[in-house]
């Protein structure tokens, strides 16, 4: 399955997918393209090091849909079948999501539906949560509301800060994202009225 990754920053989850692919853990995945909207994104270095094509598409001074149309044109050029959001700091338009319905995967640093949005770690600590974690989900038009594929739990320690909690959750993200992509690329995910069913191999 031809997969594109959209990223804006350091790309550590992108790296976890590259590593899983090179280990042979993603036998049905071909990482064909990285799309960034930030010229300084460290994800670019990761793509170049592993001979993955990349493109910078500037979003400044563009309407959201105009930017998304530009991205979609590049994805079509590469015959992309699935999309991974790896720290992509933009809200996607309805047009983009509709065009790739049930083919966009995102990871969020909480146990959704708890603590959606941009400040999941802070929100978990402020709520005195005893556990948090990460969620891989399909992207829909809501904010972190798409069907959940899988989750990994992390215990919240009494002395945790946003930084310490984030670093422990990130370890689990690097496990969860390749696992979810493997299921997706192996056609083992079925969306039902009750959520996502994982089919046997």
UniProtKB/TrEMBL annotation:
One of its GO terms (molecular function) is phosphoribosylglycinamide formyltransferase activity. Gene3D superfamilies: Formyl transferase, N-terminal domain (3.40.50.170). Coiled coil: none annotated. InterPro entries: Formyl_transf_N (IPR002376), Formyl_transf_N_sf (IPR036477), GART (IPR004607), GART_AS (IPR001555). One of its GO terms (cellular component) is cytoplasm. Residues 1-181 form the Formyl transferase N-terminal domain. PROSITE patterns: GART. Transmembrane segments: none annotated. GO terms for biological process: 'de novo' IMP biosynthetic process. The keyword Signal does not apply. It is an enzyme of class 2 (transferase). Its EC number is 2.1.2.2. Keywords: Purine biosynthesis, Transferase. Pathway: Purine metabolism; IMP biosynthesis via de novo pathway; N(2)-formyl-N(1)-(5-phospho-D-ribosyl)glycinamide from N(1)-(5-phospho-D-ribosyl)glycinamide (10-formyl THF route): step 1/1. It catalyses: N(1)-(5-phospho-beta-D-ribosyl)glycinamide + (6R)-10-formyltetrahydrofolate = N(2)-formyl-N(1)-(5-phospho-beta-D-ribosyl)glycinamide + (6S)-5,6,7,8-tetrahydrofolate + H(+). The keyword Transferase applies. NCBIfam families: PurN. Belongs to the GART family. PANTHER family: PHOSPHORIBOSYLGLYCINAMIDE FORMYLTRANSFERASE. This is phosphoribosylglycinamide formyltransferase 1. It comes from Marine Group III euryarchaeote CG-Bathy1.
């Amino acid at each position: 399955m031809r997969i594109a990754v959209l990223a804006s920053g350091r790309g550590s989850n992108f790296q976890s997918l590259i590593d899983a692919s090179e280990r042979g853990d993603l036998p049905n995945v071909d990482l064909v393209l990285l799309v960034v909207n930030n010229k300084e994104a460290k994800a670019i270095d990761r793509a170049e090091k592993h001979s993955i094509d990349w493109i910078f598409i500037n979003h400044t001074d563009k309407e959201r849909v105009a930017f998304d149309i530009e991205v979609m044109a590049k994805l079509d050029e590469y015959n992309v079948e699935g999309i991974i959001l790896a720290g992509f700091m933009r809200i996607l338009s309805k047009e983009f999501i509709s065009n790739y319905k049930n083919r966009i995967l995102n990871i969020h640093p909480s146990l959704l539906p708890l603590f959606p949005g941009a400040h999941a770690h802070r929100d978990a600590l402020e709520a005195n949560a005893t556990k948090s974690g990460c969620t891989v989900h399909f992207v829909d038009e809501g904010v972190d509301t798409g069907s959940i594929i899988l989750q990994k739990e992390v215990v919240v320690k009494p002395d945790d800060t946003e930084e310490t909690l984030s670093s422990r959750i990130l370890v689990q993200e690097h496990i969860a994202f390749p696992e979810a992509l493997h299921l997706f690329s192996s056609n083992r995910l079925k969306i039902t009225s009750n959520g996502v069913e994982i089919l046997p191999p």
